[in-house]
Design goal:
With 80 residues, the protein is α+β, with helices and mostly antiparallel strands. The chain has two helices and two strands; from the N terminus they run βαβα. The chain starts with 7 loop residues before the first strand and ends in a 21-residue tail after the last helix.
Length: 80
């Protein structure tokens, strides 16, 4: 029998983690709520998120303005 109490984890990875990967993570968080642990990261993270992506998420009713690009590098994975 499958354990249905195990929380799934999803990691969206992009290059800069400033737009699409953060948008995908925000959409899944909005849909799944606390049933899924959702994270995003980038292989070469930007200094800040793309304001156009934040604007687009706002149109969907999702506030992503607190999100900051994060590294997918093994040394910093604890924060991802």
């Amino acid at each position: 029998m499958t354990d249905t109490t195990t929380k799934r984890s999803v990691l969206f990875v992009g290059v800069h983690n400033a737009g699409r990967s953060q948008m995908a993570a925000g959409c899944l968080r909005d849909i799944a709520g606390d049933r899924v642990e959702v994270r995003s990261a980038g292989s070469m993270p930007a200094e800040r998120s793309n304001p156009t992506a934040d604007e687009a998420m706002g149109v969907l009713g999702i506030d992503s303005t607190a999100e900051q690009p994060k590294s997918a590098d093994n040394r910093s994975r604890a924060g991802v």
